[in-house]
Specification:
Blueprint: H1 2-8, H2 10-28, H3 30-42, H4 49-91, H5 96-105, H6 107-137, H7 139-183, H8 186-230, H9 237-255, H10 257-273
């Protein structure tokens, strides 16, 4: 389903993603521009402030433009997707309650393209820029960030397996929701919403456990960074600021991974249900 949508609307999607990526890249350069401004002011080179102003203004213009374009692209895409799905479902003779449930679930595809694909792009840009900056500012800290990728990959592989199983259970319930509500039996309705709560709690707990395990690794990363700074290699104030700013950007990019893993697992189950 995702590949079909991308092929059909590649022009509009490319424009939206390109503008969003440009805004993200400009924002990722902000710590370097700030570091240059700090070092320049301390060294009486006030023209360095111009880098900070130019970077901030560029990011602002690009991000505002990206938000305005996104709304136009993805609202129209969902209207076309849902309308086409409902028409085909009626032609296939599906029950109206199943059509309604799957039509609502189909929104997840557009959400993935609108929210999660840009999140992946932003994470990749953030990881690339932050790692490059850290290797430039302090190679030892950059190398430590790379080493952390291995345990983090294992954590998210575990999360992917759990999320796929839990999303299957959740979507099974959501497909039956309209039928349960139409019958209106009090006990069945209560059991239905209790079951939904149970599956959502399992999904949330799995994501929280993965996040917690990742943050333990992050603590080790900041200990290494502080130990390196204690050796006195980074003496300029701007350099110290940039190192920690890019460490935070690296961490924030990684923090998005568990949510993206869960969304991919949800779409894999939706593909199975919709016969893709």
């Amino acid at each position: 389903m995702i590949s079909d949508l991308v092929k059909l609307h590649w022009g509009r999607l490319a424009a939206a993603y390109s503008l969003a990526a440009a805004g993200s890249l400009a924002g990722q350069l902000y710590p370097i521009a700030t570091a240059l401004a700090i070092n320049g002011v301390l060294e009486k080179r006030y023209a360095a402030i111009g880098w900070l102003v130019a970077c901030h203004f560029s990011a602002l213009v690009l991000e505002v433009g990206a938000k305005m374009l996104d709304t136009r692209v993805f609202t129209r895409l969902y209207a076309e997707l849902a309308g086409g799905f409902v028409r085909r479902a009626h032609e296939d003779g599906l029950d109206p309650s199943v059509i309604a449930a799957r039509s609502a679930l189909s929104r997840e595809y557009v959400t993935f393209l609108e929210r999660d694909v840009p999140a992946v792009l932003f994470a990749l840009i953030g990881l690339t820029v932050s790692l490059s900056a850290l290797f430039w500012l302090d190679p030892a800290i950059g190398a430590t960030c790379l080493v952390l990728v291995l345990p983090l990959a294992a954590i998210n592989r575990w999360l992917a397996r759990r999320s796929l199983a839990y999303n299957r259970g959740l979507n099974d319930r959501l497909e039956r929701e309209i039928d349960v509500l139409r019958r209106g039996r009090d006990l069945s309705v209560r059991r239905h919403f209790q079951a939904l709560s149970g599956w959502r709690i399992r999904l949330s707990d799995a994501e929280a456990k993965a996040f917690g395990a990742m943050e333990i690794s992050v603590i080790a990363l900041f200990v290494v960074a502080l130990a390196r700074l204690a050796q006195g290699d980074a003496t300029r104030a701007g350099d110290v600021y940039a190192i920690f700013a890019y460490l935070w950007k690296f961490v924030m990019a990684l923090d998005q991974v568990p949510q993206l893993v869960q969304q991919v697992a949800k779409l894999r189950d939706l593909d199975r249900r919709m016969g893709q």
